[in-house]
UniProtKB/TrEMBL annotation:
Keywords: Hydrolase. Residues 20-317 form the Beta-lactamase-related domain. Residues 339-421 form the DUF7586 domain. Pfam families: Beta-lactamase, DUF7586. It comes from Paractinoplanes toevensis. This is Serine hydrolase. It comes from the Bacteria.
């Protein structure tokens, strides 16, 4: 375990202990992941331990999203297709809209309160759609239940089996299950005005399981957080995980502090963008946050229905480590090899008069960075002098080199954006043309 400074460890413990007391939680457990390993773990209250299971609620949705992106990366689905293409009776809801909660589905399934009732006999998932919310963020538990059903249908096995085979076993998450396995915490509700408890039911939610059924531990979620930070080619690559944490929908039109990617919640804490998910089920609350820029993640688990602001406390734990012990960058090293043609692309390019820098990267990748704004995109090679954007505004867009009759590169086209070696170069194919008078002084 990488050692944290004593004052950092004390600050983490103080934060955790304060949350347990102020939230009146029967128990609370947390961990910090840094530089690829669990750097700190502790707990407060009764019946706690790093091997004790807690219900993690909607963090389950991130597991579902990983399974869906695996299908996409295997070429079995397209996120732009309707669910009904792959799941009989699934309707016209686009897969990417289901992942981003913009499909216009109702928040809850029809029938009794699904989180507190036995769902093994539940036959309905879809419920009522909300057409007025299509294209807008409207959190939907049935949407992820349907995605889980699609995964099961395409894999030819129940969702839990697919989850175990494709994520849990490769990542070594042996204490992560759909139903509780001892030792596990009991779920409690704390009276709002008295220090007394009432047990919450431990239900099997049946077909709604992909929305919030999973049980896990601090240690297992630490491993899952490390995977979300760096990827694992046995499960899902880093570029697909980066797509999952790219903002897809905002929770409110004027709220820039929170958004939602593809199966991941996003939270802006000061200048730091966190990605992960919160979760809540009767008797339990949980959060997993990652900060890829800091290579830090936090996990927080508690066994009370309400009282502990788990998202904020987990963000506080992450901030304590990231601010007190900032990431030390890896040493700079030259590329192992570089094609001469790629070196010829390096340097300044201009979209109109806006300057950009293009840099070759390892594996034939390119990085295009705005020199006058925050835009930055990494592009993977697609062969035949083309690259495909994997992040930011140009995610999925194709970069194409354009040559003249002599074979000399005159410009490149990135999703119809024309980049030239000089700002508004008159000899290049600038859409709309360039004024024949060119650049001029005072007018």
């Amino acid at each position: 375990m990488p050692e944290l400074l004593p004052e950092t460890r004390r600050a983490l413990l103080h934060c955790l202990a304060t949350a347990q007391v102020q939230g009146r939680a029967p128990s609370i457990a947390a961990a910090v992941v840094r530089d690829g390993e669990q750097a700190w773990a502790d707990s407060r209250g009764s019946d706690t331990g790093r091997d004790v299971q807690y219900r993690i609620g909607s963090i389950s949705k991130t597991f579902v999203a990983v399974l869906v992106l695996r299908l996409r990366d295997e070429g079995l689905i397209s996120l732009g297709d309707p669910l009904g293409t792959y799941l009989p009776g699934g309707g016209d809801f686009l897969l990417r809209d289901l992942l981003g909660h913009t499909a216009g589905l109702a928040s809850e399934p029809p029938g009794p309160w699904w989180e507190r009732t036995d769902g093994t006999g539940r036959t309905e998932l879809l419920g009522t759609d909300v057409p007025s919310m299509r294209g807008l963020h409207h959190y939907s538990n049935p949407g992820f239940a349907l995605l889980g059903a699609m995964v099961a249908h395409l894999r030819g096995a129940d969702w839990g089996t697919v989850l175990r085979r494709e994520i849990l076993e490769p990542l070594g998450l042996h204490r992560t299950t759909l139903l509780p396995a001892v030792p596990h915490a009991l779920g409690w509700s704390v009276h709002p005005w008295a220090d007394v408890l009432m047990p919450e039911p431990l239900t099997d939610t049946g077909r709604m399981a992909p929305a919030g059924q999973i049980w896990s531990t601090v240690d297992d979620l630490s491993r899952f957080a490390q995977f979300l930070l760096h990827g694992d080619d046995r499960v899902l690559g880093a570029d697909s995980l980066a797509q999952m944490r790219t903002p897809y929908s905002a929770s409110e039109a004027d709220d820039w502090n929170s958004s939602y990617g593809l199966g991941m919640q996003l939270l802006r804490r000061d200048e730091r963008l966190l990605s992960g998910h919160t979760g809540g089920m009767p008797g339990f609350a949980a959060t997993l946050w990652t900060s890829p820029d800091d290579d830090v993640a936090t996990v927080l688990l508690t066994n009370t229905t309400s009282g502990v602001p788990v998202g904020g406390v987990a963000a506080d734990l992450l901030t304590i480590v990231a601010d007190r012990e900032p990431r030390i960058p890896a040493p700079w090293t030259p590329l192992p090899a570089l094609e001469p043609a790629l070196l010829g692309l390096a340097g300044p390019w201009y979209w109109g008069a806006s300057p950009y820098a293009l840099r070759p990267a390892a594996g034939g990748w390119l990085e295009l960075t705005s020199l006058s704004g925050p835009r930055r995109v990494r592009m993977r090679p697609a062969g035949d002098g083309e690259w495909i954007g994997t992040s930011d505004y140009f995610n999925g867009e194709r970069l194409r080199l354009v040559r003249d009759e002599s074979g000399t590169i005159t410009h490149f086209d990135l999703g119809t954006f024309v980049f030239t070696r000089q700002p508004y170069a008159p000899a290049s194919a600038i859409p709309g043309g360039v004024d024949p008078g060119g650049w001029r002084g005072q007018v």
